[in-house]
Amino acid sequence: MEIAKPLTLINKEGLHARPAVKLVDTANRFKSDIIIKTDGREVNAKSMMSVLTLGAAMGTVLHFVAKGDDARDAIVAIEALIAAKFDEE
Question: Which of 5, 16, 37, 67 does the annotation list as catalytic?
Answer without folding.
Answer: 16
